[in-house]
Amino acid sequence: MKPINVGLLGIGTVGGGTFTVLSRNQEEITRRAGRPIRISLVADKNVERARELVGDRARVVDDAFAVVSDPEVDIVVELIGGYGLAKALVLKAIENGKHVVTANKALLALHGNEIFAAAQKRGVMVAFEAAVAGGIPIIKALREGLTANRIEWIAGIINGTTNYILTEMRDKGLSFETALADAQALGYAEADPTFDVEGVDAAHKLTIMSAIAFGIPMQFSAAHVEGISKLTREDITYAEELGYRIKLLGITRRTARGVELRVHPTLIPERRLIANVDGVMNAVLVKGDAVGHTLYYGRGAGAEPTASAVVADLVDVTRMHTSDPEHRVPHLAFKADQMVDLPILPISEVETAFYLRMQVVDRAGVLADITRVLADNGISIDAMIQKEPPEGVSRTSIILLTHKVMERNVLAAIERIEQLATVEGEVTKIRLEELGN
Ligand code: NDP
Ligand code: HSE
After folding, report:
1. Which residues line ligand 1 at a C-beta cut-off of 6 Å?
2. 306 C-alpha vs ligand 2 centroid, how far in Å?
3. CATH number of 138-299
4. How confident is the model over 277-305, as pLDDT tens digits?
5. Which atom of ligand 1 is nearest to the CA of 10?
6. Which CATH architecture has domain 349-432?
7. 3-class DSSP state for residue 118?
């Protein structure tokens, strides 16, 4: 049977993995897709390196626009990254009637609304399984497997680089810098690794999942984003003493007041499966009203795990490309005219429990002052530890876990606590999620 022709834009980590997996498993993939899927044209800035990789199996050019306009190409796979050139290429491919497969979560989180509208109008597919959680088929699960459910919330470890860094720091005592350099060498990190470290990459992925789960437009600019750069070893250790692990979580939840969309370090009870997801592994916990909790686990970054998702999309598009566009699974799970515009809650309006750490002068009455401020702000304490200061030291740390409370109350309490004469420096606050219901 006539092969379907793929034009590949960018043959770096994921592009290289895609070429390798597709070549290695060609026979089985053909049996599944019903016809061969062939990467016939590749564009990369580094033509020499690309030619070495593909040999005589594909033509290599340096002009990506030549690929999206080539009449022989049926599907364009965008694996360059970024949102300037990538956006122009994807829109051009759509305009030219080509289906698109991309792993580019930044592009979709920022420009997905425009891209999906263009694709819908032109009757082509834009597939993006690899954009969220690497090799885990979470888009398929959310869009198809859980379609009977009213999804209540999603909480995920969705950045492999930061989870790898946190694990290496905790288990091997590596410094932040060394662990990050290792993650980069392993091909996990973004071109700009601050996207990983500061939670931006996770927020891109969360924005996409939130849109699919609740049938809302992509609203990345409304997401609350915090990374791991301010996390200290001290907090990781105290959290463990209290029975918790700290993970960078992306959380999106439907509430009566709006949708929560937030990425931040989070204490999770160590008995939860997701608290034990280490290294580059990702995990996404989804709560649906019918199914209850479901957990999806796998490699969140790297050449072949991500290629696994890219190739799955290629097979899907190959199977569906002659079908009536009306009968395809909608890009964002809901029919394009059935999307709703729910507001995203500002973080000050979000309710969670908190871990609070403060350094105090070890003197009678300090604790009473602090608990009074908390009570004044409607914050009730769930657990507390006070560290014994070493001999001759008059300062100590107090660590408190609160019950669930509106974030603005905690911010008000922290402001007052920091003004107490017996409290030194800033109060550290980390959100806590039980993830039990
Ligand atoms: P790489 O940097 O490894 O690959 C990008 C490739 O595109 C490079 O070979 C680069 O060449 C080439 N390129 C850059 N600009 C152009 C251009 N103008 N024309 C043609 N080729 C160009 O990135 P990754 O493979 O890691 O990531 C690709 C995409 O996949 C990104 O959107 C990323 O977010 C996403 N992703 C990555 C994952 C991972 O684990 N790495 C996992 C999931 C998604 P050169 O090297 O010379 O700049
Ligand atoms: N930089 C991303 C990560 C790649 O570390 O998770 C996968 O999307």
Report:
1. 9-15, 43-46, 64, 79-81, 85, 103-104, 130, 134, 187-188, 190-191, 301-302, 306
2. 9
3. 3.30.360.10
4. 999 999 999 999 999 999 999 999 999 99
5. 7
6. 2-Layer Sandwich (3.30)
7. helix
